[in-house]
């Protein structure tokens, strides 16, 4: 029967989708399935035909072409079968090459292609890794060869995909690996140190943690936009438990120790769940000192809520009362006015905010700040979470002055949870009787 049938030539092109930071396995599969369906759409077929000049209808192309996805990976395969070997290869390649541009247009990131088929670079990172080749015209279709090549390509790319996914799901470990991930230096690496068990470094002693914060202070100073210009820095992290509050407080102290006027603002606050936990653990609710939220809800000037600390160069603004609409208040014009006022009276304004996985406060406040400082904790922060945060900040066009690698000891977090407490700027108010002096 085979000898009397018309020859049929089959060619396949293989497409690889680079996984996005923050993608779960479910979202990756959904995206791959969507791209597979798009390969048989009129929009993509018409673009492919315009690029080749083949005189075929959309219906004929759909009858000749099939698209499939490897289960559990980001591999797409476009296969075209026709009576002409060159046509099969040309059409398969045209469909595969048209996919990135079609996705970009539908996502709204690039304009539609012109008559020449030209499109902007693909922002979703789709790549043709194995272009289609014509079947051997003399020997007929080489199904065994195509199957073996497809199997080998699928296995190799599947292994690459698994490797990339494992890299993304890894946790941050050391500064060298984090620097490679960021394609830039880590501003400072804060070591685990018993001196940090209270949340505040004793700068009167030569400890590794104190020296690390001095290096961070120097790195921050090197990023100043202009001599004599105030620096307003938002400190945040990808997820909770990264130690960003302790980094914000000790950075503020280090800056004050070098003679700068510093205001440290608690914009992270305590949410309702934390408040209930503290009330349940202590048997009674602790009344927080008046602070930022009280200012945002009232008519007084921000100066009224600035508290002096034991250090003459360091002032503090506690979080204030607990409210459910904290994020909305932080986006109010009164918050912008407060930051402008604080910047006029201080060399540095350090703002502690909630983790970006919990709330978008850092994005809101970042619009009015000079830069955002991110904190990642060794053996705690996942690269996927950090990458997702960096992508959000990039889309919002907010400047990131750098990343701090943090490794605070776990006993601090455990003891705080047992007491139903959360480390905050208000902790510094309890240290008014402590005198920390050092030559830095």
From TrEMBL:
Ranges of residues in domain AAA: 231-377
Extract the Pfam families matched here: AAA_31 (PF13614)
Keyword set, alphabetical order: ATP-binding, Kinase, Nucleotide-binding, Transferase, Tyrosine-protein kinase
Give the GO cellular component terms, alphabetically. Answer: plasma membrane
Query: Would the keyword Transcription turn up in this protein's UniProt record?
Result: no
Q: Which domain of life is it from?
A: Bacteria
Q: Any idea which GO molecular function terms this record carries?
A: protein tyrosine kinase activity
What is this protein called in UniProt? AAA family ATPase
Q: Print the organism lineage.
A: Bacteria, Bacillati, Actinomycetota, Actinomycetes, Mycobacteriales
């Amino acid at each position: 029967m085979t000898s009397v049938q018309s020859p049929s030539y089959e060619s396949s092109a293989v497409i690889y989708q680079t996984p996005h930071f923050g993608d779960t396995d479910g979202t990756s599969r959904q995206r791959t399935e969507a791209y597979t369906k798009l390969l048989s759409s009129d929009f993509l077929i018409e673009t492919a035909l315009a690029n080749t000049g083949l005189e075929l209808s959309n219906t004929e192309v759909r009858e000749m072409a099939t698209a499939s996805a490897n289960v559990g990976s980001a591999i797409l395969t476009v296969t075209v079968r026709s009576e002409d070997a060159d046509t099969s290869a040309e059409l398969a390649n045209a469909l595969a090459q048209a996919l990135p541009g079609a996705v970009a247009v539908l996502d709204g990131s690039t304009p539609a292609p012109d008559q020449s088929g030209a499109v902007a670079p693909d922002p979703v990172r789709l790549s043709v890794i194995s272009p289609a080749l014509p079947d051997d015209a003399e020997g007929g279709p080489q199904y065994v060869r195509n199957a073996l090549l497809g199997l080998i390509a699928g296995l190799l790319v599947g292994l690459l995909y698994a490797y990339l996914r494992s890299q993304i799901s890894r946790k941050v470990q050391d500064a060298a690996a984090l620097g490679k991930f960021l394609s830039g230096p880590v501003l400072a690496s804060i070591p685990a140190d018993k001196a940090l068990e209270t949340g505040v470094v004793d700068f009167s002693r030569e400890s590794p943690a104190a020296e690390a914060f001095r290096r961070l202070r120097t790195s921050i100073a090197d990023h100043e936009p202009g001599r004599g210009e105030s620096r307003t820095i938002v400190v945040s992290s990808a997820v909770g438990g990264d130690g960003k509050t302790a980094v914000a407080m000790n950075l503020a102290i280090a800056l004050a120790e070098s003679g700068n006027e510093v205001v440290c603002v608690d914009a992270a606050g305590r949410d309702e769940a934390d408040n209930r936990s503290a009330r349940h653990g202590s048997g009674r609710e602790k009344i927080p000192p008046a602070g930022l939220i009280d200012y945002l809800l009232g008519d007084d000037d921000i100066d009224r809520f600035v508290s002096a600390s034991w250090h003459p160069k360091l002032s503090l603004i506690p979080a204030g009362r607990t409210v459910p609409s904290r994020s909305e208040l932080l986006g109010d014009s009164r918050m912008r006015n407060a930051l402008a006022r604080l910047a006029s009276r201080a060399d540095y304004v350090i703002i502690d905010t909630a983790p970006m996985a919990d709330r978008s406060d850092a994005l809101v406040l970042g619009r009015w700040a000079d830069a955002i400082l991110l904190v990642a904790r060794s053996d705690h922060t996942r690269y996927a979470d950090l990458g997702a945060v960096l992508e959000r900040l990039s889309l919002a066009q907010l400047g990131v002055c750098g990343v701090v690698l943090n490794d605070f000891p776990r006993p601090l977090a455990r003891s705080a949870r047992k007491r139903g407490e959360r480390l905050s700027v208000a902790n510094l108010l309890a240290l008014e009787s402590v005198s920390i002096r050092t030559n830095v």
